[in-house]
Amino acid sequence: MSTLSREFIRGNRELWNGPGRRALLLKVILCAGLLSGLSLSSKLWLADRSFPTIPAVRGLPNLPQTLCLAVAWLFVACVLAVALMPRPGPVTYAIPVLGAVLVLFDITRLQPWFYQYMLLFVALGGFKWQDPGTGRSIAACAFILIATYFWSGLQKANGTFAETIFPWLLHPLALERLQPFWFVAPILEAAVGILLIMPRTRAWGLAGAVAMHLFLLLALGPFGQNFNPVVWPWNLCMPAMAFVLFFRNPKPILRIAWGPPVGKTIVVLVGVMPTLSFVGRWDAYLSASIYSGKTREAFLMLTEEGARRMPPYVQPHIHRGKNRIGLDIVRWSLSELGVPPYPEVRVYQALARKLQEAGVPAQDM
After folding, report:
1. CA 20 → CA 15, 86, 132, 146, 260, distances in Å?
2. Cβ neighbours of residue 111 under 8 Å, at least 6 residues apart?
3. List of residues 6+ apart from 114 with CB closer than 8 A
4. H-assigned helices in 41-155
5. Strands of the chain, DSSP E
6. For the segment 158-180, what is each residue's pLDDT rounded down to a tens digit?
7. Which pLDDT tens digit goes with each residue over 26-59?
8. CA 306 to CA 120: how far, in whole Å?
9. Out of 67-81, 160-174, 186-200, 307-321, which region has the weakest mean confidence (pLDDT)?
10. What gap in Å lies between CA 64 and CA 148, rounded to an integer?
């Protein structure tokens, strides 16, 4: 056995037998979940594809394919390195930095699971692997999960979720008769976050989290709607991370997480800023609005000339009805990238400008 292998085994054994066990398990689950998501949305991380890249900042040039591949492969290498290193330390910060670069050149990559994973890596980057006694990084990670459950539940308290999304989730399980009780879903999901933040009720919160993710896996998975496979590993990682962070953890999460500047930033981003989404001042995907019925979908209406002028790679996604011709942007993104588009009006408008640059007259769409 090589010296490197012995050091790897010894380092992991020390962490497993010490107070760094939670961070070690969280690191492995987090890296596995991120790599699974990347593999299920491989075209999303390329620049040369049919669904155009939409920069997060208007006017930013497209990232050349060669440079995009270099950043993407470096990103994957950093995830693998953090997964394998017993004590990655500040190296962990390379993952959210490279992730931010990839998002800067294409905001479609800022999916809810990717946003959450990047914040978790930011929090984990401050973990003191040599002296893990304070648990501030663990508390910050725990608060990210608490806020995700809480806001995701509140976002579902709307009529579209009641009339469309909830029945759609129930249909493959033959549970449509439960549709009148739709309000239970947002209450239970928000309650999971509340139960997890209080030490005495964390066991109930963990039970609720497992039940909820099991339902989502059945509803969205291959035996249900068989929809959006990229979120399947996320629904496996979330309860696993919840157990690592909350099981037999009696510490007060919010007070500890609020200590360092990074913790304060995370608490504000995931705990406070989502309130602005209810008045249209914060993006839905940054507010845990997931299968809520509140995210904006877009349909691009076309004239006959507009449909004819569409690039060949778009033609399969054009649908002709009795009285209209339209491009379903959501289905185009899902079929090409494996993820839905970033659901904001400015992004759909930027996509229309990209199609105009490809030769489709603005007056025909």
Report:
1. 5, 10, 6, 21, 19
2. 37, 41, 230, 285, 339
3. 34, 37, 99, 103
4. 65-84, 94-104, 112-125, 136-155
5. 299-302, 318-320, 325-328
6. 999 999 999 999 999 999 999 99
7. 999 999 999 999 999 999 999 999 999 999 999 8
8. 44
9. 307-321
10. 34
Would you say 364 and 302 are in contact if contact means Cβ atoms under 8 Å apart? Answer: yes
Q: Which of 29, 42, 107, 184 is nearest to 341 (CA)?
A: 107
**Amino acid identity, residue 327?**
L
Determine the residue type at 84.
Answer: L
Rounded distance between C-alpha atoms, residue 213 and residue 164, angstroms: 20
Name residue, tokens 């969280």: 26
Structure tokens at 265: 């930033």
d(CA 309, CA 355): 10
CB-CB contact of 51 with 336 (8 Å): yes
> Which parts of 136-183 fold into alpha helices (H)?
136-155, 159-160, 166-170
| Cβ–Cβ < 8 Å for 75, 66 | no
Report the sign of the C-alpha dihedral through residues 45, 351, 54, 328, in that order.
negative
Q: pLDDT at position 8, please? A: 52
User: Dihedral (C-alpha) 219, 223, 226, 231: value to the nearest 10 degrees?
Assistant: 60
Neighbours of 22 (CB within 10 A): 24
The model's pTM: 0.93
Q: State the CB neighbour count (10 A cutoff) for residue 251.
A: 14
Q: Provide the residue type at 241 as one letter.
A: M
